[in-house]
Design brief:
This protein has about 220 residues and is mostly helical. The protein is about 80% helix and about 0% strand.
Amino acid sequence: MNTLQPADYLVFLLYFIGVSIYGYYVYRKKAIVGKEAKDFFLAEGSLTWWAIGASLIASNISAEHFIGMSGSGFALGLAISSYEWMAAATLILVAVFILPIYLKNKIYTMPQFLATRYSDKVSTVMAVFWLLVYVFVNLTSIIYLGALAISSISGISFTVGIIGLTVFSIIVTLGGMKVIGYTDVVQVVVLIVGGLITAYLGLSLLSEQFGYGGN
């Protein structure tokens, strides 16, 4: 089994340190005294369209995709990709037909919509429900899978991997959506470049073994 080399550890370390420092720098530089919760979650309306798009991609892709969906793709085939194709079509419909209504009425979250449409009780129930789902289901599974991947390909223990990923996540999200938006641009560039390189290497190896030029 292949293991990580010292150069690999150095790349990971520099990447984590670089993104963490950049996120903390943006947090300190962009910090506003007395800013409201709306500014925290909406980045004070300062993000450009490409930064918002990058944040959507980077926030959507996580360990559940790299490990869970990749494994499902290997076992079931390309049919698993319909999961993301469906999400892409849904996002287009939401952006064209639903989002303009939200913006027109200055609605920024689903709980806010439910509070406006129904009552504060309904809004609170949904907010608490999804908070619990994200804390005890989404975040735990993502951190677990990430730490599992790190411990599988390196000598780092599973516990240290969980602690490291948790601390790293906290650092890069301290300043709210403005920090997340800026750091997600870096994440997307790394994801796209790394994905293209991985796809090229994978197809090259596949061609050597099973292509027309192979034995």
